[in-house]
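Researcher: Here's the sequence for the chain we discussed earlier.
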Amino acid sequence: MACSALGNPFLKACEVWHDLLGSPATADFMRRSLDAGVVMDTWLSSHCQGSLTPEARRFLLDTVEGLVLHEPTPFPFLFTSGFQKVALHRILLSTVLRNSENKGEISLAEAQTTASEVRAFAAANGGPLQLVLLYAILVSQENYQALAQHRHLTRRDFILGTRHRPWSDSFGGEELEFGLKVGELEIFAAVNDQHIYLNRRGLDSLQRMEALLAASGWKNWQVEQQNISYIEHVDAQLTDTQAPVDYDVSYHRIATAVAAETTRFLDFSGVGPGMQVLEVGCGTGRMTLDLGLADRVLPEGRVVASDPSLWMLRKFHDKLRKWGGRLPQLTLSLARAENLPFGDAAFDTAVGFTFLPYAADPARAVREMTRVTRPGGAVATAVFLKWDARALAAFHPWLQPLLEIIRTHHPSFEFAGLDAGETADLFRAAGLVDVVTAPFSIPWVVDASRLTRFTMEMTAFSKVHDLLPSVEWRFLLKKLEEDAKTFFSTTSREERTFTVDYERVRGMVP
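Model: Thanks. This is the structure I predict for it:
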C-alpha cells in the first residue's frame, strides 16, 4: 500500500521514517551506540531473560517505564508507547547480557550499572527515542530480510519468528504494526491464515537499512551475533544419531595435534606466575582451563577470558563449575576483540589462539590487544593461514554442491584464514616491536559423517555461511550430511586428512 493511501497521520510517519533511513546523522548515532556498547540483538535479549535474578528483572522493567515518553512524541504515529517499551526493554536486556561478567546469572547490581550507562548514553545522544529508532532499524532489517528471502511469511510465523528467529521467545506484534504503519508491509488473507508480504517501498527501505548497517559497523557485529546464535545449537545439531556432539571433543578429534600446539603456543607467549593476562577469543575455556593457561598464571596472577560468544562463555562457565566453582582471579568477559572493554595498559600480556581469522576487523583487534597491554608486555596469537577446499581433490565428490555455489556465484571467494606474514604486518602496524613468527602445521582428519556440521561451521568453511541465506545454508548442510555417508564409506582416513598451516606471532609493546 502506498503511503499516500494511508491518510495524513500515517503519511507523516512514512515520510519521517524514510528521511531517518537516509540521514547521515542516523549512521553516526548507530556507530556511537556500537562503540559505547549499547546494543540490541534478538538472540541476546531472549537469552538474557533466563539469566536475570528476579530483582534484576523487576528493576529493568521499572527502568523501561522511566524511559518511555508517555507524552506525545515528535512523531507519535511512528513510535507508540507500546513500541517504545518493547524497544527499550530489548536494548537493556541485550546490553546487560553483553556487559555481564557472570554469564550464569545477572545480578541486580549489574542491571543497575547497565541501566545507568544506557540512560547516560541516551541523555547525551538525543534522548530515549534515538534508542527506539535504533531498535526499529535493526529489527525491521531482520524482519524484512526474512520476508525478502522467503517471499512471504504467515502472520503467525512473522510474529513468533519461527522461520527467521527460532531462538527468540518474544512476540513481534509491535513490529508488524510498525511495518504496516510506515507502509512497507502488506497483509493478504488466505484460507487458513494471513500472509505478510514486503512491498516495493519495503524493499527500498531494506536497502537503506543495510547501507546504514554497513556504514556504521553494525553489519559486522550482526554477522558475529548471527554466527553465535547459530553455534548455540551445535551440540544438538552435529549429529548422525540423536546423541549430542561435544564441541571440545569434536575439535580435538578433528585437529588431533591442536592440544600439543596450544601448549607450545603458551610457551611461546611467555605467560607465567603472577602475570595479569588477557585471553581474547577464549571459547569454551579450552586453553584457559584444559590446557594450562590458568595453571601457569594463578593464583598469584589474574586471567580475564573474553569472547564475543555467549554460548561459548556459558560452556566455559559450566566447565568452571565442574572445577569446583568460580575462581576470583579468573573473570569472563563478553567482548569483541575489536572493542575490548578494558583500560590502557591493563595487562602484562594479551594472547589469543586462532581467533584472529574470524575477527571482523583483524587490524583493529591487534590494535586493541596492543592498547590494553602495558609497555614491555607481549601480545601473542596463533592463526591459521588461508587454504582452499578446491585444492582437496579427494573431497570434491562430497563438497561438489558447495564448490559449485562458489564457482558459479562467487569465483573470487576466499576461505577463512590470513596470508603468510599478514599477522606480523598487522603487529608492526599496531606499533609492536621485536615481532617474531614461528610457522607450524596441524593435520585435520574428517573421520565421521556426524561431524559434517562441525567441520562446516567451525573451520575455514564457515565463511561460506555468509554467501547464503540461513534457510538455504541449512538445506546445503543437510545435503552435505546425506552425501557424507557415501563419502566416508568409500574413502580412507588418509584420503580424508589434510594439513592446515599456522603461524605463531609475538610482539612487544614499546
